[in-house]
């Protein structure tokens, strides 16, 4: 499937409504955002206050951003720790920040490829991955930082229809101990993985993952 085909499809809004400048604030977690240095990111309550303080001040319901963003927030967790030259701080999906419990809807028809609780501080927490077939092509969408209850009563291979209520934003700490948000990511290929897929990569791997993970805004359509 081509990017052109992916962008031409008709999607259901994954947050239940269109995300645009009237209700959504782009959030910057790159090193250029010097205000992050004033936040104790390892303390989730402080990180949460920062995120939702930004939204309150702007009068917005959602925060958004992060695709291929070089981020300075991953030092809060050893999930991303490795040798310095391979430290994973390039974000492969888009984050949508909103209050815990906010519903998330399937953007188009698919089936549940896999799911699991990727537990641990800074990890995905509860995660669902859908498989979508368009004509002769297949791609996948990942939904991370969910509520634990979303993993109950679902099954691999279960059909999901466009617009179905799929899951909810989880509260911390069960969502991987993050301020509530959806990590939404697209993959052309799962590379044999199940229930999990890298959501960040190192600078050395950026070109590799650009070929695997197309821009989720093709589906979200934020303007």
UniProtKB/TrEMBL annotation:
Cross-referenced InterPro entries, in alphabetical order? Cell_wall_metabolism_enzyme, Dup_hybrid_motif, M23ase_b-sheet_dom
Instruction: Specify the M23ase beta-sheet core domain's residue ranges.
Output: 90-189
Output the Pfam families linked to this UniProt entry.
Peptidase_M23
Q: What is this protein called?
A: Peptidoglycan DD-metalloendopeptidase family protein
């Amino acid at each position: 499937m081509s990017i052109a085909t992916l962008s031409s499809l008709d999607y259901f809004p994954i947050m239940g409504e269109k995300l645009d400048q009237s209700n959504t604030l782009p959030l910057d977690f790159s090193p250029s955002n010097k205000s992050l240095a004033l936040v104790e990111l390892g303390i989730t309550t402080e990180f949460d206050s920062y995120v939702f303080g930004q939204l309150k001040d702007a009068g917005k319901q959602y925060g958004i951003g992060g695709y291929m963003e070089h981020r300075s927030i991953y030092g809060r967790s050893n999930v991303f720790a490795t040798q310095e030259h391979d430290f994973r701080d390039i974000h492969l999906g888009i984050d949508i920040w909103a209050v815990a419990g906010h519903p998330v809807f399937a953007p188009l028809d698919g089936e549940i490829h896999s799911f699991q609780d990727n537990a641990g501080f800074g990890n995905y927490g509860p995660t669902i991955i859908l498989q979508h077939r368009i004509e002769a092509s297949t791609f996948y969408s990942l939904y991370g930082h969910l509520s634990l209850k979303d993993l109950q009563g679902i099954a691999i291979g279960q059909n999901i229809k466009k617009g179905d209520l799929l899951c909810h934003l989880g509260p911390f700490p069960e969502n991987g101990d993050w301020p509530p948000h959806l990590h939404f990511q697209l993959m052309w290929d799962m590379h044999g993985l199940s229930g999990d897929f890298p959501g960040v990569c190192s600078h050395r791997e950026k070109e590799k993952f650009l070929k695997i993970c197309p821009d989720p805004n093709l589906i979200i359509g934020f303007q």
